Amino acid sequence: MRAFAALALLLGLMQAGPAATQARDTLTIGITQFPSTLHPMIDSMAAKSYVLHMARRPLTTWDKDWKLVCLMCVDLPTFENGGARRVTLPDGREGAEVTFRIHPDAKWGDGRPVTAADAILAWDVGRHPRSGVASGEAYRRILNVEARDAKTVVFTNERVTFSYNDFSQFEFLPDHVERARFEADPETYRRRTAFDTEPGNPALANGPYRVTQVQPGAAIVLEQNPHWHGAKPHFRRIVVRVIENTAALEANLLSGSIDYVAGELGFTLDQALALEKRQAARFDFVYVPSLLYEHIDLNLDLAALKDVRVRRALLHALDREALVRQLFEGKQPVARSFVNPRDASFSPDTPAYAFDLPRAQALLVEAGYDRVVDSVRQNAAGERLSFDFGTTAGNRIRETVQQVLQSQWRRAGIEARIRNEPARVFFGESLRQRRFQMAMYAWFSAPESVPRTTLHSESIPTEANGWAGQNQPGIRNADMDAAIDALERELDPGRRKAIWARVQRIYAEEAWVLPLYYRSDPFAIPKWLAGIEPTGHQYYSTLRVEHWRPR
Amino acid sequence: MIRYAGARAFQGLVVLLAASFAIYMLLGLMPGDPVDLMASGNPDITPDDVRRLRELHGLDRPLAARYADWLVALLQGDLGYSRIFNKPVLATVAPYLANTAALMLVAFALALAVGLPLGLAAASRRGGFLDGAINGFAFLSAATPTFWLALLLIVVFAVVLGWLPASALPPPGEDGLAARAAGLILPVATLATVSAGEYARHMRAAASEALAQDWVRTARAKGASEFRVLSGHVLRNALVPVATVAALGFGSLFSGALVTETVFAYPGMGKLIYDAIMGSDFNLALACLLAASTLVIVANFAADMVYAVLDPRIGFGGAR
Fold first, then answer.
1. A22 band by pLDDT with thresholds 50, 70 and 90
2. I need a surface site. Which of A103, A225, A522, B287 has the fewest CB within 10 A?
3. How many contiguous H segments (helices) and E segments (strands) does chain A have?
4. pTM for this one?
């Protein structure tokens, strides 16, 4: 640690090394992760999305203002404009038929047009149970995909939900390249796909760039796709270099080996804050609160945590504002719930828990913890208000936050015993099998993402369901279940917003989960580079890479 | 000699079989499987997806049955597919192995080329200034964290002076021989500095012991020059214990140097093994770890051969 501090000092002493003087027709981006596959549907990985967003475009996406927009389609189909309609399914249920018109000029990198056949192949691969697609359930909820003509594709969804026209995760696959490979043997398709066996094949790209070279574990090179139908990008070539160690990433940036560190997959917040103090003249620093929200799950099977007064006292005892101010210079806003204030579904009426130590103590007394022995509260039965508090060992920021929270709770007579585990044990066993008392970690989601997998009672992991599901606290609440069910079916934005408000109110009032703060993506953008629009959600800034250019 | 080599080869195979079983079981006993890890970071994955993926990747089968399948396939020359890279294991490992070989072999050779003469020089001037300086270097190199040294070299030579690249691999399209060689200078210097100190210390100890022997005095009495004494008599005898240390060092070559590779963004075996283990990629992890085990066995065997060459009194077992 001392060695690192000495090195940081040395870095601080030098203001700037030899600045990058390379030609501005190449942009070199540094990221911290190498994608294990370049197939857009197999596995989900942030690094893969970041790179592929430059080379491929989904039908729709969420833009920087968190609005659903068309990318490969001509216009967004809605019930109002006739692009979508309710249909009766063969089993009598009501489904939704959504018609997308594919952009007439959209082409693959080999000049072949993007057609409905490419959408049908994506659906065939996605819904096949043995194709290895991670979230295949989303494809199986589409009952049929049909080509009305080469440039018109009709999806039949098994249910009518408000997200009927959100196809942001739906990626076209080039039928003329991948169909034969898939049909030869769907089970081994993931090992034979051209995305991994010949990643430089131009026919795999339909975005402004195409992958031309892959240096395993080290770099991916993209060059302009001459058949891209949108705005012509400025940079002829983009090199994405992988440097996993963030201190080395910083050294590479300062030495000019890389031009820009991806905000979504680069510096830690504390590193960016330190860099800003030294290098404000060279970079613009932007901190974008994201959909990643840090929180503490409470295990509701514990007797003490079943009492809502105890849970609320846990929140009132925390000075989260001071925490984010002191540790993150206020760059990571305190969270009220899992819904980010930038999300259209956010409700400003969601109850907030201000730091109020007397209130916390009163709630604990009310809950029966009215005596203090050795600085820890106890109830009449002698049960101490003491919990195991776990997170991922080795995550320096989380461990620091944990210590602050521990000391704040101590003032209220609540003991938090730190029990950290390596990420693999923490996520793979303790959290999955609900063998924790208080667990701190982060969730991410898409804008207006329904919390079925995290808050609905059907998603509680149990031995009977093979520990599947992500409702780790064990929330069983009929009101929440009903609200989530209603939320998905409600198409009217106004009425849906009211349900969203209900969901957030229940979440806050019940305090099953202690929201801490929304994580921010720190962007250090070189002064000469313009056009980067951080989004804060999983549809990264590279979806608009064609607008990046030197000032 | 042939009988000895055959017996050592058989021992090696038994050790490899035992190692493969132990590695497979240890990987299997690690908490959480790859599908759990996938699901923990992706709320879109439903319980049905989890069940389907676990079955698809064979994770619902007993560990012993999976090991037996792997062993049968291995005997047929099939190392299988890497689960995280969706590629044949050999194709996955090859570029990483080539990178590690280039880095580690050069670093190993440089460390020996620097460490052994330094150790010999220190022993020949025992107690003097040179001895103190070399000892100081040896202890400093042993005490310096690789991570810190690597970053320091980057800061000085890449950031401040701008003489060398901060990353070991030049970007694609700019990766000519000169660029590749320039990229390797800092990581090689990092690894060689740390190892050279160790070799110097061992060489100094062994050479000091040799210098105290009667036959050294005899050689000097016969009028042999100091250079002749050191290079012709002391070095050869002192190399026997150093060969053991070097053999062990060589054996670890292909398991890579995780820290150096990470800091210099160099995709090598250390990082690959780490990713394979953390991602529960059994086929890949086994192939990498068995390759490293094989090399340790081969290196030890080679060390035995070197002993015999250096000291004819050492035989290959049996009565002499």
1. very low
2. A103
3. 18, 20
4. 0.84
How many whole angstroms separate alpha carbon A11 and alpha carbon A2? 14
B171 vs A239, A429, A431: nearest CB:
A239
Amino acid at A105: D
What ipTM was reported for this prediction? 0.75
> For an interface test with B, which of A27, A37, A424 has the most B Cβ atoms less than 10 Å from its Cβ?
A424
Rounded to a whole number of angstroms, the distance from the CA of B109 to the nearest CA of chain A is 25
Integer CA distances (angstroms), B88 to A177, A188, A544, B163, B266, in order = 21, 12, 35, 39, 21
Cα–Cα distance for residue pair A347/A337, rounded to 1 Å: 10
The Cα B247–Cα B302 span in angstroms is 8
- Tokens at residue A217, please? 């574990």
pLDDT in tens, A214-227: 988 889 999 999 99
Give the one of A14, A191, A453 whose C-beta lies nearest to B86's C-beta: A191
**Backbone φ, ψ for residue A268 (5° rounding):** -80, 160
What is the CB neighbour count within 10 angstroms for residue B265?
29
What crossing angle do the helices spanning A493-510 and A478-489 adopt, rounded to 10°? 160
**Residue A537 Cα, gap to closest chain B Cα (Å):** 13
Q: Evaluate whether A447 touches A537 at the Cβ level (below 8 Å).
A: yes
Mutate to test the interface with B, among A34, A212, A250, A252 (most CBs of B within 10 A): A252
Cα torsion angle, B17, B20, B25, B28, sign: negative
Q: How far is CA B53 from CA A42, A135, A249, A264, B49, in A?
A: 11, 9, 35, 28, 6
Most confidently modeled range among A489-503, B158-172, B198-212: A489-503
Minimal Cα distance from B155: which residue of A?
A: A251
Asked if B53 and A132 come within 8 Å (Cβ–Cβ), the reply is yes
Q: Between A and B, how many residue pairs show a Cβ–Cβ distance under 8 A?
A: 200
Distance CA B275, CA A369 (A): 47
What residues of chain B lie within 8 A of the CB of A449, using their CB?
Answer: 43
In order of A127, A149, A327, B38, the CA distances from A115 in angstroms are 19, 8, 51, 31
Window from A182-196, A343-357, B252-266 with minimum mean pLDDT: B252-266
Nearest CA to B25 out of B71, B76, B56, B89 is that of B71
Contacts of B163 (CB under 8 A, 6+ apart): B157
User: Buried b / exposed e across A510-520, counting CB within 10 Å, b at 16+?
Assistant: bbbbbbbbbbb
For the residues B257-262, what does the mean pLDDT come to? 84
Which letter, b or e, does each residue of A362-388 get, where b requires 16 or more Cβ atoms within 10 Å of its Cβ? ebbeebbbeeeeeeebbbeeeebbbbb
Q: Using CA atoms in the order B304, B306, B308, B309, what is the torsion angle rounded to 10 degrees?
A: 170
Contacts B151 to A, Cβ<8 Å: 4, 7, 247-248, 251
Mean pLDDT of A261-277: 92
Give the integer Cα–Cα distance in Å for A107 and A110: 8
Write out chain A residues lying below 8 Å of B81, CB-based. 191
